[in-house]
Each structure stands twice: as structure tokens, then as C-alpha cells.
Amino acid sequence: MKLPQLAKKPELKSCHDVTWEDNYSWIHQKDILEVLKDKEKLNPEVRKYLEEENSYTEEQLKDTKEIQKKLFNEIKGRIKLDDESLPYKDHLYEYWTKTTSKGNYSIKLRKKIGSDKVEEIWNGDKEKEKIKTEYFGVGDLEVSNNDKYLAYSLDTKGSEYYTIFIREIKTNKIISKEIRETSGSITFSLDDKFIYYSSLDENHRARKIFRHEIGNIDKKDELIFEEKSKAFTVSIGISSDEKYYFISTSDHNTSEQYYFGVNEEKPDPKLIQKRERGILYSINSWDSKFYNHTNKDAEDFKIQTSDSLENQDWKDFIPAKKETLIGGLTFLNNWIIRSETSDALDKIFVINKKDGTEEELIISEEKVCVPNVSLKQKDRNTDEIYLGYSSPKTPSRVYLFNLASKSKKLIKEQEIPSGHNPDDYIVERVEYESHDGRLVPLTITRHKNTKIDGSANLLLYGYGSYGHSMSPSFSSTRLSLVDRDIIWATAHIRGGMEKGMKWWKEGKLTNKKNTFEDYIHAAKYLIENKYSSKGKIIGMGGSAGGLLMGAVVNQAPELFLGIIMAVPFVDSLTTNLDHSLPLTVGEFDEFGNAKDNKDHFDYIYSYAPYNNIKKMDYPNILITTSLSDNRVLFDEPAKFTAKLRDYKTDNNLLLLKTEMNAGHGGKSGRDGAIEEIALDYAFALKISKKI
């Protein structure tokens, strides 16, 4: 089959006295945000190219059709399709969700406390069928405090423009106007007369908080708060004691909060602390005290308390610890639960409010695991919580845990219907040295029968941006590779916060290349220690992890057999220079501002994957993207693919698959998500010659 060709229409670009040629910049439409809302506005020539690439990918992966089906059934076979979540007890009702073997979307159920009558208040599959849409994304699903109304937000394109609907549960009738172009989150007022929401501006940024009167069909919604900075986005939530609303506005690096009382008839948001560049803070209130989770004078955060917000007098409650990330707090009447992270491992602690003592809650003997805690009811006068954990080899287990007596009872275990024995797998946590001597954590999961003699293929997963940490939790899907002698390794590289705030700082702005070096050194460590061999490793990453893949494959292609890139941020210089795009301005503190800062420009230009494609051999590459993705526009991977076809000097696979009805998270629904994983894994098995 003929290789797809995107027409070259050379354009000379220049910035800071540097000029470069871009043959494919023409595919970026000026009205790109309109295209995300309505795909009929896509340039027909570009559509034709994307469809040709899709046909080419299908042809090249024709021999994987059977294994894709097999993988799909295998992955689905590990999911308990008819399943129910643990109930959450509200004032009058217990609420929970369930999934079914026939459905693709969840169902929300409730029953009155003391009654056995179960009521279905939301059924995703029926709702999708009702509005006849291919893509069905649910943003938020909230029940009013009086249990009478259901508010929900829907995205039917994948472009993350959410429309909010409010309906009466009893009659199933919509009782308010549709609220369009919102961020999707919904907060009910305590008296259930209003909802609060954030609206999106013309650049898809949430910068205004509105109050909508429930039942209002015509009246304009009331503007409560407006953020003036284009780099900041806003959200609203209610305090743990339900006495205040907090409006939070932030970019990735700096935050600011406002508050107003729940009983204020006309909300008047008051500033808590003026924003300071690089300072993040988050206020909550409980038991007549305010708690501040902040990194001011505490690189890895600390928690302070004050009796008042009018006359603030902050005292340390949980002090800072070096290279240990201090997490937030969960309140009960007699207990405070908190978390912290160090060396890519989470811990949970409980404070006894009566005597001030603190202890760690150890739920498993496994060294590498992810503990978690959640409340079982709204009434905080209880000693009982849900306490659970999972690990790379152990499915999720949840206990009903009594904080006073320390008794625990297993109440839910993630069932793997097709069978699973944790003892068949070996999980290792190692540290390896990066290019500058920094020790980087690496989690390795393999089948006990996989030989460590360099003969195994290995999938190396990485992300390394925005301070997002990669948790070593259980994934039933990965077993499809691990059971076929492909080792799964996750590199906890800089750019995340696995070792605290410094870990993030050392992997962003003009330290970004540490992220790439950490990943390359992970591959080298795995080769040196015979987990795999040169040319047998498959790299995998999505979004900013796709930027990682693009930079790494330009730098060290010889290490890899293949690369899988999902919605990859590969034309990062072009995107950074365009301040009209949804995410650019809010990410100056993450990636830099190339347009206004020459040092930032030079640095980004030196690693941006699209700008650094070379004439050389590349490994096999699978790139997936979505037409309605507003976070990483489809034209980034499309341009990257087209340029790579021009430059690469090998005959390895280069495949681009564009979902024509999806957004940044890929297809909607359970089956859609499994299909995408099956495609990625089939590609990995094909290039590993394991089909």
C-alpha cells in the first residue's frame, strides 16, 4: 500500500533571530477551536490525509486483527462486568454506582436508609441512546443536598466543552436551562436553590464562576468571580464543615483563594492570601479552625492552622519534611487522616484528636503498593473508614477499618473473573543513577517465569510532567503483556513529584532535559542488568509523556524496538509560541515562554520533537491521536508523522491512527477504552514477534 503523503507547503518561521522551515504548518486552522466543536469545519485536504493514514495503519496491522480480538476478550475477561461500588451514606440515602455486562457506562443507584427499595437515578447507556451521540463523556454527576435534583454535565464531542443539565429525580424532567461551554464541574448550594459552575472563555479556559438559579429558564446567570489573568483557571468547592465556599484560581505553579459564607445571600468572595509566584496554597475549614496546605517556606508542603481568616495567625500543624511530599487532610470528629509521599511510595497517617498522637496506617506487607482511604458516610461522627490498597501484582482490596479498635474487615476485593494469582508475578523497586548522579526510582513487574538474561522484551512507561506522580497500582490490562514475557517497567522520572517538589522542579522549564535523560538512563539500566537488551525495549507515553517519547526517540533511537505515543505533545515549540491555544499561557511555568524569553526559546527549540527529527534510522512507531482533542491538537502528531516519513532512513513501521470521534482521553465507554489498549498491545506484540 502506498505511503500516505501530506502535501508540503513550506513556510519560513522566525523568532529571536532564529529562522526555520515548517513544511506542514498549513494544516493548523485559524478556527481550530471551532473545528473541535464541529468536525465538519475540518479542512477537507487534512481530513483526506488523516483518513489515508488510518487506512494505512489498518492495512499494516491487518495481521493483528485476531490478536486484537483476543486481547480485547482477555482484558475484558479480567474485569468483573457486573460490579457495584461500596455505598456512601448521605443524610437520608445510600448512594452507589454499578456496571453491567451489557453496558458501557455506569449506573447510579440509591436507596433510602432503612429501606430495601433500590432506585436507579442515572443510566449512562440509556442517556447516550437518548441523545444519539457516538461520543459520550460525563463530566460531573451531582445529587442535591435535599436528594431531589440530579445535575450532570455532558461532552458529546470529546472537546471538553461540557453542557450542564439539571433534572428533578422524581419526574425525570429537566427543570433549568442548558448551561453550555462549561468546565463540567457542578457545586450545589446547601439550600439547593442554586448551582455554581465555571464557564469557558473563547480560548477554552475556565476563568469565570457563575451562580445559576435552579428552575431558571431565561434569566442570565449571576457572575460571582472573574479571573483576569489568562494564565489562571478557576474552580469552586465547599469546605469540609460546609460553612464556606472556596474559589481557587491557579496555574500549575501559583495559586490564590477566595471565600464566602454559605449563608451569604449575595456572595462576596474575599481574598485569603494574595498570590505570590511559585507559592501554592489550599485552605479548608473544620471544627472552628482553618487549615492551610502550602509550600510557602516549605518546598514539599506543610500544613498550618489559624483560628480566623480575617485575622490570620498561622501556626505549623504538620511541619515540612525534606523530599517528602505532605498531602492533604481528611476530617472526622475524632480523627484527622493525612498522606505523604517519598521515593515514589505513599503512606497514610492518622492523628487522634483527643490526645494528639499520630501513627501510620499500614495496610499491607508488600513494600511496593498504593494505600488509599475514603469516607463511608457524610456524618463524620464515626470511627469507621474505607481503607484499601493495591500493588502491581495485587488487585484492589478494601477494608472497613475502625480507627479506635484497629479492627479491619475485608469488604470488597477486585475480582479478576478469568483468574489471577499474585504469586505468579514479581515486583521489584530499584533505584538507578541518572546522568547527573540523581537516584531515580524504577518499578519493575514481571512474570516469575520470565528469564532475566537479556532475552525478554520490555515495555518502559514514562510521563514526567506537571508534578504528576506515577503510582505503582494494580492494572489488570498490563497482564496481557506480562503474561507473554514482556516485562513492564515504570520509570518515576523527574518532572513528577515522586520525590517531592524538587523532583518536579528538576524536570521542568530549563531542566526539562533531565526528564529525557532519566528515561534514557532507565532503559540503559534495564539493559545493563539483563532485564532486556538494546533494541528490545518498547517505549510508551501519552500526552506530555508523548513529548518524552518524541524527545527520547530523537536522542537514542538505537535503544528501542518500538515507541507507542498517545495524543503526543510533539510540536511543542509551535504550541508554546501560540498564546491563543487553550493550555499554552497556563503552562509558562511548566515549559517556559518561548515567544517572550530567548533562553526559553533556545532551550525548547533544542529538544522539541518535531524540530529535532533527523535523517537516521528510527524504531517502529505507533502514534494515536483524536480529532476533538483540545489539549494536544491532532495537528501535532499529524505533522510529526509527515515529517518523520520524510526523514527516517529505515523500513520500520510508522503508523498514525486518528480517532475521528474522540478527545484527549480517547474513545468514550468501557469497550472503546479496551479497544484502544488492545491496539497498542497488538502493535507491541507484532514488533516483538509474539503474534
Descriptive notes:
The protein is an alpha+beta fold. The protein is built from 13 helices and 39 strands. The strands form nine sheets. Strands 32-33-35-34-36-37-38-39 form an eight-stranded mixed β-sheet, sandwiched between helices. Strands 3, 4, 5, 6 and 7 form a five-stranded antiparallel β-sheet that branches. β22 (302-306) and β23 (315-318) form a beta hairpin. The protein starts with 10 loop residues before the first strand and ends with a helix.
Observed structural traits:
691 residues; alpha+beta; 39 strands; 19% helix
Oligomer: single chain
How many beta-strand elements?
Answer: 39
Unreliable sequence segments: none
Q: Tell me the major beta sheet.
A: 8 strands, mixed
Evaluate the radius of gyration.
Answer: 25 Å
Task: Give the integer mean of the pLDDT values.
Answer: 96
Number of helices: 13
> What is the helix fraction of residues, given as a range?
10-25%
Task: Determine the N-to-C terminus distance.
Answer: 22 Å
Task: Characterize the overall form.
Answer: globular
User: What would you call the structural class?
Assistant: alpha+beta
| Share of residues in strands | 25-35%
What's the arrangement of secondary structure elements?
Blueprint: E1 11-15, E2 18-22, H1 32-37, H2 44-60, H3 65-77, E3 83-84, E4 88-89, E5 93-99, E6 107-112, E7 118-123, H4 124-131, E8 137-143, E9 149-155, E10 162-168, E11 179-182, E12 187-188, E13 194-200, E14 206-213, E15 222-226, E16 233-238, E17 244-250, E18 255-261, E19 270-273, E20 281-286, E21 289-294, E22 302-306, E23 315-318, E24 325-331, E25 335-342, E26 345-352, E27 358-360, E28 370-374, E29 384-390, E30 397-402, E31 408-413, E32 425-433, E33 439-447, E34 457-461, H5 479-482, E35 486-491, H6 501-505, H7 513-528, E36 537-542, H8 544-555, E37 560-566, H9 572-577, H10 588-591, H11 598-607, E38 620-626, H12 635-647, E39 654-659, H13 670-687
Parallel strand pairs: 34-35, 34-36, 36-37, 37-38, 38-39
Antiparallel strand pairs: 1-2, 3-5, 4-5, 5-6, 6-7, 8-9, 9-10, 10-11, 12-13, 13-14, 14-15, 16-17, 17-18, 18-19, 20-21, 21-22, 22-23, 24-25, 25-26, 26-27, 28-29, 29-30, 30-31, 32-33, 33-35
Helix pairs in contact: 3-13, 7-8
